[in-house]
Amino acid sequence: MVAGLDESVGRVYRSLKDRGMDKNSVIVFTTDNGGPAASFDYNYANNWPLRGVKDTLWEGGVRGSAFIWSPLLKNTGRVSTQLMHISDWLPTILSAAELNDVITRADINNLIDRLGPKVYNNAHRTSTYFPVDGIDQWSALSENTPSARTEVLLNIDHDRNVYALRVKNYKIILGTTYNGDWDNWYPPEGTNVTYASMKQAPAAVKCAPPLNPGTPQSCMPLKGPCLFDLANDPCEYHNLADQQPEVLQRMLDRLTIYNTTVVPPRNQPPDPAGKPERHGYVWAPWK
Prior knowledge:
By secondary structure, the protein is an alpha+beta fold. The protein has seven helices and eight strands; from the N terminus they run H-E-H-E-H-E-H-E-H-E-E-E-H-E-H. Residues 118-129 have low confidence and may be disordered.
């Protein structure tokens, strides 16, 4: 599958280059979350040396890797560590294209006209402005300026009682998924990777010294909140909740403010009619 993806991307790039469009293009590769390491979900991935896996709120579950290529970038050949959320991509790409970061209903109406009434009902028409979610990060990516973002709400999940928030370099986490069964650190399978060898890679995560063998785990998120300084401890070894109670309280207060804006999730129950085997073994719209 990876070889097929590589070939497809190469064909797209060659087409852009052959038409002279590559000079005004932005190519982004990004993930939506951490990987399912250690056979989580019967799959394979590597988040090492970060903690946790996909569908957890540890850095191994929420920190994504990405790269961006474009002749429009001004400061290139570097590793970007600016804080960014996946919702920032839309306003960032709009900014790179020198477009307004506000989409109007007129834009949507034009799309309705192009697609026809069978796709959208005319009842959707209005002239109201809709601000785009996310923050424009083009300057941070292109010129290596500080991130325009200072915090990321990672999740508020009342159904599973898990919550996490990052403000600058601090992160608070309350509760955990799967009763903590996937809260550990998972080295790549079939290799002899050590902490010392990992930190030599050019874009490697620089962890704080890990806990000594046999040291009790200071973070037990099912019993109380955990606080981490990700600038110095991105691998979440050392819980600072007891050492920095004022920071912990500020984070809890900020999380409480976010919680006042929570709306019920719109997840729908599974529909067997949407299974790929009913549609030529591909994921496709079914209703």
